[in-house]
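Incident log, support desk, overnight shift.

02:14 A customer reports that sequence design results differ from what the structure should imply. Their input is reproduced verbatim below. On-call engineer (initials T.W.) acknowledged and began investigating.
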């Protein structure tokens, strides 16, 4: 063993593990009794012979004392490239998650998840602020029993802010959305009138938060009504149409969880992947996305069906109220 040659290489190598291994090999060699030295250090002789053989076979190249990947050269049980391409295509085109893709391709969700992670098609999870969990979880039986309505801020276009009004049926997850230049009372009126005309079911209740676009009710720091509010245009429309307007408890946006969750889907599968140059172009592309959301995108919460399909099944039941 050429100790001087290796010591010369060590001068330019700062890897701590390589230096420790070389120090051990050198000390054991110079001791004249490798077995006795290993016994004193509490190390098996096989450890010495393993690293000495690797160093010798490399021509006394000290970099051979570094760790090498133990990854197998072949993986017979790995998902085939053809299936991987199907998963990638479905993810990019439809934006489905591991559960939905697995249900479509008859694959375990864990397998699909590993493929998506390996291909870099899963976004890193953001650290979310902990919220008080709402204890009540429910599924309504009739379409239109509660329609959750909320507003989402749309990414700015040329420095100008736009707003997405969203209504989602609590039962079927069917949605009606429109993008406006402001979130004024006029926008609310136009949106609600369009919602009533577009729905194929009777709307019994519209559920909103306490935004000024939905109510004139003012609350104080103790979450109690501080003054009598004048009638809002949404309340007037609901009264004329026999619809109940329900306000969620202050600070409990999870009660409107289905519309909040649909906004996250919009952010991940539409806004993060779509480009537009004008308000008109944004509206056209969003309308196509909304049709895909209602008619083609599978939803785990309704048994991996589309909202349109699930709504049709519910409307066919005798308990469903139709227009």
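02:41 Re-run completed on a clean worker. Output:
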């Amino acid at each position: 063993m050429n100790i001087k040659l290796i010591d010369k290489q060590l001068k330019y190598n700062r890897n701590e593990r390589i230096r420790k291994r070389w120090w051990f090999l050198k000390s054991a060699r110079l001791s004249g009794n490798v077995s006795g030295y290993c016994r004193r250090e509490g190390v098996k002789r096989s450890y010495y012979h393993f690293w000495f053989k690797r160093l010798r076979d490399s021509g006394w190249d000290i970099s051979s004392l570094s760790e090498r990947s133990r990854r197998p050269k072949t993986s017979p049980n790995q998902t085939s490239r053809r299936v991987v391409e199907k998963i990638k295509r479905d993810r990019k085109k439809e934006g489905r998650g591991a559960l939905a893709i697995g249900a479509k391709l008859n694959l375990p969700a864990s397998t699909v998840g590993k493929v998506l992670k390996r291909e870099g098609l899963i976004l890193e999870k953001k650290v979310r602020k902990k919220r008080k969990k709402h204890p009540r979880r429910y599924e309504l039986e009739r379409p239109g029993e509660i329609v959750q309505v909320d507003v989402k801020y749309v990414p700015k276009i040329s420095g100008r802010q736009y707003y997405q009004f969203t209504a989602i049926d609590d039962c079927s997850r069917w949605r009606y959305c429109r993008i406006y230049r402001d979130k004024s009372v006029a926008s609310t009126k136009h949106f609600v009138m369009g919602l009533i005309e577009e729905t194929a079911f009777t709307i019994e209740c519209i559920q909103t938060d306490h935004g000024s676009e939905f109510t004139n009710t003012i609350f104080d720091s103790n979450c109690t009504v501080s003054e009598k509010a004048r009638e809002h245009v949404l309340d007037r429309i609901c009264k004329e149409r026999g619809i109940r307007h329900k306000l969620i408890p202050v600070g409990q946006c999870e009660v409107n969880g289905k519309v909040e969750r649909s906004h996250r889907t919009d952010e991940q599968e539409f806004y993060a992947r779509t480009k537009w140059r004008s308000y008109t172009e944004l509206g056209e592309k969003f309308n196509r996305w909304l049709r895909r959301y209602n008619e083609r995108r599978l939803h785990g919460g309704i048994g991996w069906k589309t909202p349109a399909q699930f709504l049709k099944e519910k409307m066919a039941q005798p308990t469903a109220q139709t227009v």
